[in-house]
């Protein structure tokens, strides 16, 4: 059930100070390189002092956001900690107790809220996700395999002689051909514009207050975060929801084939489910056929809203991109849309399923998403529990997101059209959750504060 929220936008005029980009981790504000490759690493800390020593060593290699690419490094590294990791580092109890309840509980404990049941249940996640053994998450990006190895070597040297620091998880990732995701759609096209983070974009998109994404600045309510404590810990920090998905590309192709009578209709249904054509062209701007030039134009492919499509005849109400970001479609409703954005840093793993193959080959492929915001509950958790899994906000009852919803073979997808709408039935789950964690990503000064706790 949706609740009435405090209005935001024109009613809040609190100016935001300039972002301290030299103190904010690059992962928060800067996009991945292009092309990109990288690796996620999870560490376990068995001794607080060794954990802090590891942090002191790795700190010089954590990339700040003030430069798109740090010239002195072949790649860049981001670091974040689970609540168990903050405890393992010896963070004071008063600080631990001041973190929001959802972070303290962790993603696995929030499974009911997130609709992580069935195949998505934490019991089915890869180790160490959802266990007390996941403490430190490293995200390492580079432009080439050679550069990646150089940064990985720096990360290894930070703990190679510390016996109580162990690597409990590693996963390589990289860009797929033409920058597509495993389903074949152009990937990473849109993120909210953070006020003060860089040049304004072309088009009519308005910026979102920096405090929605980074602590220490006013948010859309005109409020500034006051936890966790002390200020040295929270300033320029944020939260990260990590989600690893496996994608069943063959099931997606089979479903399209079963619902369509021609290849062209398959592509149209796929676009209706996503809200964009595979090229990245949005349906609102290209409702009848794909427009690859539009999809490739970063100045145009996000310059749109839904006020001219309030019947959903171009882009269905339940299309993936319209559900996770309704844009101006809800601006006159009880939901304050600007309170429910997060920054999305997505990467892909595994090889693409060969074109035209309709049977699963058993290979691991999918995506890992770092969903970044200062308010886990009203951002990631709200979007996941309300807009992704509850269709009431668009008057669609129990209808879920057709791409990332936990549909389990009985899902429904509604395509508005005249004179009669079309409703697709028997929608399976095309993605399954393989793991997830809530992490805190401190600013660089806060990292030094943690590293020097015992000194």
Describe the structure.
GO terms for molecular function: heme binding; metal ion binding; peroxidase activity. Pfam families: DyP_N. One of its GO terms (cellular component) is cytosol. The protein contains 14 helices and ten strands. By secondary structure, it is of the alpha+beta class. The chain has two domains: 26-234 and 440-451, no CATH class; 245-342 and 363-435, no CATH class. The strands form three sheets. The protein has a four-stranded antiparallel sheet with strand order 2-3-1-4. A hairpin with a 6-residue loop joins strand 8 and strand 9 (422-427). Helix 2 runs antiparallel to helix 14 (444-451). The model is unreliable at 1-14 (pLDDT under 50).
Give me the secondary-structure category. Answer: alpha+beta
Instruction: List the strand order in the largest sheet.
Output: 2-3-1-4
Which regions are unreliable across 5 or more consecutive residues at pLDDT < 50?
A: 1-14
Proportion of residues in β-strands? 15-25%
Organism: Bradyrhizobium commune
Pfam families: DyP_N
Keywords: Iron, Metal-binding, Oxidoreductase, Peroxidase
Domain DyP dimeric alpha+beta barrel: 24-171
Structural descriptors:
alpha+beta; 2 domains; four-stranded antiparallel beta sheet; disordered N terminus
């Amino acid at each position: 059930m949706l609740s009435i929220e405090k209005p935001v936008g024109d009613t809040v005029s609190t100016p935001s100070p300039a972002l301290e980009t030299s103190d904010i981790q690059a992962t928060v504000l800067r996009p991945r390189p292009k092309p990109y490759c990288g690796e996620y690493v999870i560490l376990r800390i068995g001794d607080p002092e060794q954990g802090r020593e590891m942090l002191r060593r790795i700190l010089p290699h954590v990339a700040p956001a003030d430069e798109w690419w740090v010239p002195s490094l072949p790649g860049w590294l981001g670091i974040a900690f689970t609540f168990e990791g903050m405890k393992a580092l010896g963070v004071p109890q008063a600080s631990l107790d001041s973190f929001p309840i959802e972070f303290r509980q962790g993603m696995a404990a929030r499974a009911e809220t997130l609709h992580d049941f069935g195949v998505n249940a934490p019991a089915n996640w890869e180790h160490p996700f959802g266990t007390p053994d996941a403490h430190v998450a490293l995200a390492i990006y580079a432009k080439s395999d050679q550069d990646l190895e150089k940064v990985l070597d720096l990360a290894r040297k930070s703990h190679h002689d510390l016996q109580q620091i162990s690597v409990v998880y590693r996963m390589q990732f990289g860009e797929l051909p033409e920058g597509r995701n495993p389903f074949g759609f152009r990937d990473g096209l849109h993120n909210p514009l953070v006020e003060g983070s860089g040049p304004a974009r072309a088009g009519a998109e308005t910026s979102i207050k920096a405090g929605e994404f980074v602590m220490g600045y006013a948010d859309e309510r005109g409020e500034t975060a006051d936890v966790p404590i002390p200020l040295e810990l929270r300033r320029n920090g944020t939260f990260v929801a990590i989600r690893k998905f496996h994608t069943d590309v063959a099931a997606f192709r089979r479903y399209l084939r079963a619902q369509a009578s021609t290849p062209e209709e398959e592509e149209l249904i796929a676009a209706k489910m996503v809200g964009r054509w595979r090229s990245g062209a949005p349906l609102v701007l290209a409702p009848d056929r794909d427009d690859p030039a539009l999809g490739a134009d970063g100045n145009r492919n996000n310059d749109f809203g839904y006020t001219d499509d309030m019947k959903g005849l171009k882009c269905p109400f339940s299309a993936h991109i319209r559900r996770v970001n309704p844009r101006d479609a809800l601006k006159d409703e009880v939901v304050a849309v600007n309170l429910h954005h997060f920054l999305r840093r997505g990467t892909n793993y595994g090889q693409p399923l060969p074109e035209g193959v309709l049977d699963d080959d058993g290979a691991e492929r999918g995506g890992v998403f770092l969903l970044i915001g200062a308010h886990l509950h009203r951002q990631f958790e709200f979007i996941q529990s309300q807009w992704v899994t509850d269709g009431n906000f668009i008057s669609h009852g129990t209808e879920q997101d057709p791409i990332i919803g936990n549909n389990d073979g009985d899902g429904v997808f509604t395509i508005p059209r005249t004179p009669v709408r079309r409703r697709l039935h028997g929608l399976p789950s095309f993605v399954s959750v393989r793991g997830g964690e809530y992490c805190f990503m401190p600013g660089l000064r806060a990292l030094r504060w943690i590293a020097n706790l015992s000194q």
